[in-house]
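>> Question from a student workshop board

For tomorrow's exercise we were told to take the sequence and the ligand below, predict the bound structure, and bring the output to class. My setup keeps failing. Could a helper post the expected result so I can at least see what it should look like? The ligand is adenosine-5'-triphosphate.
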Amino acid sequence: MSLSTLQIPTARVFEPLLKPARYKAAWGGRGSGKSRFFGGLLVEDSLYHKGLLSVCIREVQKTLKDSSKRLIEYTLSEHRLGEADGFKIYEDRIKTPGDGVIIFMGMQDHTAESIKSLEGFRRAFVEEAQTLSGRSLELLRPTIRAEDSELWFPWNPRKRTDPVDVMFRGGSPPTGSVVVRANWSDNPWFPAALEQERLDCLRSNPDQYAHIWEGDYVTISTGAYYASDLARARSEGRIGNVAADPLMPIKAYWDIGVSDATSIWIAQFVGREIRVLDYYEAVGQPLAAHVAWLRDNGYDRAECVLPHDSAQRDAITAIRFEDHIRSAGFEARAVSNQGRGAAMKRVEAARRVFASIWFNEKRCEGGLSALGWYHEKRDDARNIGLGPEHDWASHAADAFGLMCVDYEAPPAAKRKLRLEPGHKGSWMSV
Ligand SMILES: Nc1ncnc2c1ncn2[C@@H]1O[C@H](COP(=O)(O)OP(=O)(O)OP(=O)(O)O)[C@@H](O)[C@H]1O
Ligand SMILES: [Mg+2]
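>> Workshop helper replied:
Here is what the output should look like for this input. Compare the format with yours to find the bug.
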């Protein structure tokens, strides 16, 4: 093969990673082509930058079988690159044109001293980067320091707190990062065997589907109320680009946290669809902050719908809230008291209507991960469920459930509830 003819086809999703960048990150579910993309790029860079020193890294590499060596060998053979082109495969390394080399190693075998042998390397390809420890990342970043050096990170996310997720998805990725999300649906060469695996997973292991195939964080596997509904929504394409209908009213469903988080879902009911457009959450902020968010995001005409479960909440706080929201210029109403077991009633309502729900993925990211996590508290000793766990995810889930209850309610039941003047703590409909 000659230089001018190397053409590695690239899926569109990876195109932003073709131009030079200090950090190239690609995260997503299985079979999205992440490994093949970076393998191809490494071969290409080795061919065009004579003498390039590259290292393929894993957190743990017990033998070369655990390494990316086979991937690189396969890529070379696929493009008929061999000794005539300057590549030569050795037992533990691959020689590349102009006295370059690709080596393979595990971070756990390195110390702060030994890692220094990598100074001068200009490509670090960190495969399965979700397993990379914080220590490894700290060792690696300053080591790969040569002019025009690049660090590459493909990974399948597990937890929001994994170091690679914190680094690239934690809100302030390092300067010079290009981050893409890639899933099976972005892979034009997605093989039939993997498609079969995907469909089998959807059927037999729906709780894990979004994690394995769509790149979501792991959700709790037993007792997660919405795991399979979310998996279905994803596979049916109901989590993606959802736009507001400018002619339809906008509703804002609140869960009011007096001392903890306040959550708001923004939704429209359009025909038989519930379009969930946005999600907001804040801890320890005054009402003015929530209202400002509504205004700043174009929801200044939203009808605010508030919970009213006297079992969990102080009626006076709720009514004050409603008044405050009204005096801020919003329409507001409370959904009537659902009495005992309100949380489970919300879950049941949500499950009934879930198939009609569409989510704007970008705007609802935080809310979606909370819905994925929302789960039953269990007493393992007695093997019984104790109702929904109250944790960081339950506020989002409560406000979401409120929306579903409200959607289900026949129009007559949606009349406004107001506190009767001069009457303490009881409700009348008007
Ligand atoms: N450029 C390509 N040319 C031909 N086939 C490709 C290409 N990219 C991906 N594929 C096909 O897609 C499959 C999945 O690609 P790859 O293994 O790179 O995905 P991945 O995102 O690394 O998956 P995993 O999360 O399982 O590690 C490959 O086995 C191959 O069949
Ligand atoms: Mg891979």
